[in-house]
TrEMBL record:
One of its GO terms (molecular function) is lyase activity. Pfam families: DPRP (PF04244). It comes from Geodermatophilus pulveris. Coiled coil: none annotated. Residues 179-193 have a biased composition (Basic and acidic residues). Residues 178-199 are annotated as: Disordered. This is Deoxyribodipyrimidine photolyase-related protein. Signal peptide: none annotated. Keywords: Lyase. InterPro entries: Crypto/Photolyase_FAD-like_sf (IPR036134), PhrB-like (IPR007357), Rossmann-like_a/b/a_fold (IPR014729), UV-DNA_repair_photolyase (IPR052551).
Length: 521
């Protein structure tokens, strides 16, 4: 039977979901490493506590560039604040908090474990969470008003747009349409180029050099272990850098973002994406200011007679105030047990080649390219995550909780709240359909249509049997057969499951993929 997460508790029933106060004047503000922007303070002069905990990196093997990004951001924030901040380099949080002799407050952290920790800490004032468009109380009110209806992202997104008056003409959306998503699914250009400038890149400084030296020493001493390549640092660690990247995106890439938002190109790993998710998730930018900046750029372009494509602007706004906010709120709404969903009974371990980001072990062009980008950069955009990495794990029956942990550790923008809903719900369908109405499984034909990976690949996306059979094409049919009974009640899977009965050589395909297992493809 599909896993059913526990019934979400109303705010106040679970201490971690309590209605917290908004401000705590006269306190020193403890800012976690994802709360580094000025909007996490009650005033520009508020004293700050920053804690650098080596224990966080010692527990699990993180991508080297993720560790660098977090430490660099913490240390840069301390340097910016000067005497206004205390930076404690300790093994665990308690060691730092025990040293502070004044009243301390903290904005509610972004994960269940951290929130539980601050709520257990005596004398610590916990405030309402910041860094998202809607507050938790607002989302709870909206969800309660939905009654027994599914909490669809599209409905919440429209609610957020109306409430903040973003891309609205009175009561109607600009352009007369809410959802321009289908305008953003064009296949990539055949020449493999989308014709946008290279993104702006930050320059490393002496703080980065010290971070690199510390990480090298920790690894050499055996205190921590990393995966992935070291630098150069590609993502902002200061507010100034984050604002620079935002302006660069609005100036040079926003107009091209929409049409090929869902496309993949081997030679264009950034496409026209904003690359703002790491800065947003470090708290360097407020998502409201990002959305307002994009809308203002659109309205300015209309006023000058050279309007930016609305599908590009709306698609970007949808990512920031739609999907990002929705994922954050569903992380809390569906409760602590949501991460343990396993509706498709997937129990395979993450294979070593995937755990090690070993793109050299892989023949499939799509997987090799995406894994190589992840090894080098600690980042790939949302479609390779969903339709290559996630699609592979879904087809092969890899444990969704293990995949959630893998995504969390290997992506520079990965946090627990980000990955639980995205992986357990969206990618692996382990929630039984709470987030997505059907599994995001596809054969090689989709990858062929939306990328240039299949040209020259040793596998043929049209074949499901034989040495050159595409592992995604064959894996798709094996996945459906393995989960036939579990997916049968889903009306959106009816046509795909009917195709199983017409497929020639199904038993051979299933056996071929059983033997392939989770070996490098």
């Amino acid at each position: 039977m599909p896993h059913e997460p526990r019934t979400p508790r109303r705010p106040g029933e679970d201490p971690a979901l309590a209605a917290f106060p908004a401000r705590a004047p006269g306190t020193r503000r403890w800012c976690f490493a994802d709360q580094l922007g000025p909007h996490f303070l009650d005033g520009p002069d508020q004293p700050v506590l920053l804690v650098e905990s080596k224990a966080v990196f010692a527990r699990r093997r993180f991508h080297r560039q993720k560790a660098h990004l977090v430490l660099s951001a913490l240390r840069h924030r301390a340097a910016e604040l000067g005497e206004q901040a205390e930076l404690h380099r300790v093994h665990g949080y308690a060691e730092a908090l025990d040293r502070v002799r004044e009243a301390v407050s903290v904005c509610a952290p972004t994960t269940w474990s951290s929130r539980d920790y601050v709520l257990r800490r005596p004398g610590l004032t916990v405030l309402a969470a910041r860094g998202f468009v809607a507050t938790q109380e607002e989302f709870a009110g909206w969800a309660a008003g939905r009654g027994r209806q599914r909490l669809l992202m599209e409905d919440f997104y429209r609610h957020n747009r109306r409430r903040h008056d973003v891309l609205m003409d009175g009561a109607e959306p600009v352009g007369g349409r809410w959802n321009l998503d289908h305008d953003n699914r064009e296949p990539p250009p055949r020449d493999g180029r989308i014709g946008v400038p290279e993104p702006w890149w930050p320059e490393e400084d002496e703080i980065d050099a010290q971070v690199r030296a510390d990480l090298d020493r920790w690894a050499a001493d055996g205190e921590v272990a990393f995966v992935g390549d070291d630098g150069p640092r590609l993502f902002p660690v200061t507010r100034a850098e984050a604002l620079h990247r935002l302006r660069d995106f609005l100036d040079t890439r926003l107009g091209a973002f929409g049409p090929h938002e869902d496309a993949m190109l081997a030679g264009e790993r950034w496409m026209a994406h904003s690359l703002l998710s790491p800065a947003l998730n470090l708290g360097l930018l407020d998502p409201v200011e990002v959305v307002q900046a994009a809308e203002q750029r659109y309205r300015d372009s209309v006023a000058t007679g050279d309007p930016l494509p609305l599908n590009s602007v709306e698609g970007f706004v949808r990512q920031v105030m739609g999907w990002r906010d929705y994922i954050w709120h569903t992380y809390w709404h569906f409760g602590r047990d949501f991460r343990h969903g396993n509706a498709l009974a997937a129990h395979e371990a993450v294979p070593d080649w995937l755990a090690d980001l070993d793109d050299g072990a892989v023949d499939a062009a799509c997987m090799s390219d995406v894994l190589g980008d992840l090894r080098r950069d600690g980042w790939v955009h949302h479609i390779p995550r969903l339709m290559v990495l996630g699609n592979y794990a879904l087809q092969r029956g890899i444990d969704p909780l293990a995949m959630t942990d893998w995504f969390h550790r290997n992506f520079v923008d990965g946090y627990d709240w980000v990955m639980v809903a995205n992986v357990v719900g969206m990618s692996q369908h382990a929630d039984g359909g709470l987030l997505a109405t059907k599994p995001y499984a596809s054969g090689g034909a989709y990858i062929d249509r939306m990328s240039d990976y299949c040209r020259g690949c040793r596998y043929d996306p049209r074949k499901r049997l034989g040495e050159d059979a595409c592992p995604f094409t064959a894996g798709y049919w094996a996945f459906l057969e393995r989960n036939r009974e579990r997916l049968a009640p889903n009306p959106r899977m009816r046509r795909a499951l009917q195709g199983l009965d017409r497929l020639k050589g199904l038993e051979e395909v299933v056996e071929q993929e059983r033997l392939r297992g989770t070996g490098a493809i």
